[in-house]
Amino acid sequence: MRKRILIISLMTTLLGILFFTFAFTSSYYNTAIEQAKSILPIYCNMYDDGYSFDDEGAEALSEELGGARVTFIRADGEVAGDSEGEELANHSDREEVIGALEYGEAFSARASDTIGKTMVYYCRALDDGNLIRVAMLTRSEWALLLQSLSTVITYILLDIVACLLFTYFATYFILRPVEQLTKEAMLGGEVKTGYSELKTITGVLNERNHSIKAQLTELENERLMVKKAQDSKNEFIANVTHEMNTPLTSIRGYAELLCTGQLDEEQRKQAYSTISSQSERLTNLIACIINYNEIDSDDLPPYELNFSKIVEETLAVVKPEADKRGIELIKKVDENITVNSRHEIMSELAGNLIRNAIRYNKQGGKITVTLDYRHFSVSDTGIGIAPENMDKVFSRFFTVDKSHSGKNGGFGLGLAVCKKICQRQGWHIGVESRLGEGSTFTVEFSLN
After folding, report:
1. Is 37:120 a contact under the CB 8 Å cutoff?
2. CA distance 324 to 436
3. Per DSSP, which regions of 234-295 are E strands?
């Protein structure tokens, strides 16, 4: 910036110096010409018949006039006498001679052909038709310019020094507020200034700071999400490993006992039964994990379906299981409640909530299933959930009663699946429970 200011100030001032130099030179030259024009007619007035019309007379008049050049010219342009005593050619083509013959007097300024210097000529016609011409030496514009060159160079050097000082102090006072703004902006705070010219800069800096803060916040959120996802993945793997380890340990143990051949018939039957049940449990666990993971990769389009019909079908399917335990199913299902989803997804949601209500209910308990256009809820009179476990209910592989784990596919993934389904649908799922009295799971539909 300093370099740019220096160049601009130098160019401006140098052009100004050169312009005024030429202007003053031209003005001085024109003034000198005008002064000569006012003096030369007076010189001519001093001529009278006492001067001979030849070189001697011209020289005598010149001495009288203080050295001004005097030339006597006949009417035909021939030079009759000259104070310089030179042989001059016919002057009928001279501008001042032509003007004097036509108008009685005339001026002209030009370089003399004989002495090579700039002269101002005044020519007057005499009564006898002859002409007298008086000339004064003057300097041309270029001569004046060259004469003033040393002064101009001095001013140019002074100008350069002045521009350097001006640039230093100007940039110091101009840049200091900008540097202050930059320091404030680097601290990340709100930038303010009392200079109206810098309001635009402060606006840009504040906008940039806000943008950077937003980006940093976004990056931090993404970092936390990645960390959370990584922790969730590690937890998922640990839970899967733990859940698989139990049936695999049983299968391996009984298989090793069978290989020894030391079991009697009754023990072998027990071993075969355990291996079969644990294999089925392992198969169910794998199926649940696959089903849980497929929800994230599901990209099939949704469609409008009758959720009331799905709930009725689910209740019909689980009724025999409820009857075995003496559990009463109470329906409060409005007809033709439609949602925008898919049949298998909504069957999974209803089935998990209703089966959990049966699984964790008391013998002879009740289950109330409610469905209207606002929500779907399943209430039971079961074992309930302890307050310290309320925030873990929808976590993967979490079960309220570990004694139920593994039965009928109960691996603690059902409610996690329900939560993931609701999140993808834009719905909210929540739970209210009291330990030993029962729980109510509610899905609130979006009204959009």
Report:
1. yes
2. 21
3. none
Residue 116 is predicted with a pLDDT of 55
CA torsion 239-245-250-252 (nearest 10°) is: 160
What band does 44 get if pLDDT is binned at 50, 70 and 90?
A: confident
Q: Whole-angstrom Cα distance, residue 376 to residue 310?
A: 12
How do residues 102-145 score in pLDDT, each as one tens digit? Answer: 899 999 888 766 655 678 899 999 888 899 999 888 766 666 66
Same domain assignment for residues 105 and 75: yes
Residue pair 96/107 in contact by the 8 Å Cβ criterion: yes
**Exposure of 73 by Cβ count < 10 A (0-12 exposed, 13-18 middle, 19+ buried)?**
buried
Cα(281)–Cα(275) distance, integer angstroms: 10
What's the CA gap between 78 and 400, in Å, rounded? 139
pLDDT tens digits, 431-444: 999 888 899 999 99
Cβ-contact 367, 361 below 8 angstroms = yes
Q: Give the strand order in the sheet containing 105-111.
A: 79-82, 69-73, 131-137, 118-125, 105-111
Same domain, 12 and 129: yes
Query: Does residue 26 lie in a domain region?
Result: yes
Does one domain contain both 240 and 258?
Answer: yes
Residue 185 domain flag = no
Integer Rg of the chain from CA: 58
Q: Which two tokens stand for residue 93?
A: 């083509």
Whether the pTM exceeds 0.85: the reply is no
**Are 304 and 438 in a shared domain?**
yes
Check whether residue 333 and residue 422 sit in a common domain: yes
Q: How confident is the model at residue 406 (pLDDT cuts 50, 70, 90)?
A: very low
- DSSP labels for 89-120? ---TT-HHHHHHHHHSEEEEEEE-TTT-SEEE
Q: How far apart are CA 322 and CA 329, in angstroms?
A: 8
Note whether 287 and 312 are same-domain residues.
no
Start-to-end CA span in the chain (Å): 58
Q: How confident is the model at residue 163 (pLDDT cuts 50, 70, 90)?
A: confident
Count of CB atoms situated within 10 Å of the CB of 400: 23
Q: Nearest-5° angle of CA 155, CA 159, CA 160?
A: 125
Structure tokens at 134: 């008086």
256 and 348, same domain (yes or no): no
